[in-house]
Amino acid sequence: MAEQLKELFSKDFIEFIALKTKEYYPSFEAKNFQKTIINDNWKNLELKERMRLIAVVFNDFLPLPYAEQLEILNKVKIDLSYKDSMGLQSMIFQDFVEVFGLDDYDNSIKALESFTIDSSSEFAIRQFILKYEDKTMSQMHTWALSENEHIRRLATEGCRPRLPWAIALPIFKNDPSKVLEIIEVLKFDKSKYVQKSVANNLNDISKDNAQIVIDFVKNNLGQTKDLDWICKHASRTLLKKGDKQILPLFGFGDSSHVNITNLQYHDSLSFGDDFIFDFTLNSEDNLGNLRVEYGIHYKKANGSHSKKVFMISQNNINEKEKSFRKKQSFKNMTTRKHYSGEHYISIIINGIEKEKGSFYLNDTSN
Question: What is the pTM of this model?
Answer without folding.
Answer: 0.90
